[in-house]
Amino acid sequence: MKGILRIIHILLIVASGQTLLFSQVTKILFLGNSYTAANNLPEKVSELAHSLGDTVFFDSNTPGGYRLLDHTTNATTLSKISSTDWDFVVIQAQSQEPSVSPDQLSTEVLPYANILNDSIKSNNSCTETVFYMTWGRKYGDQQNCSTWPPVCTYLGMQQRLMAGYMTMAEQNNSTVAPVGLSWKQAMDNDTDSLINLYSSDNSHPSLAGTYLTACVMYATMFHRSPLGSEYFAGLLTSDALFLQQMAEYVVLSEDYTFTFFDTYSSINYDLSWESWFDLGNITFAGFNYSTIGATYNFFDSSINSEDWYWDFGDGFNSVLQNPTHTYTESGNYEVSQKTNNPCFEDTYSQEIEVLVTSSGIINKQQVFSIFPNPGDGNIILTFQSQMIGEDVSYEIWQMNGSFLKQGAFHLSDKNQQLQIDLTNFPAGLYVIKIYADNETLTRTFVIR
Question: Domains of the chain (ranges plus CATH)?
Answer without folding.
Answer: 10-276 (3.40.50.1110), 287-354 (2.60.40.10), 364-447 (2.60.40.3080)
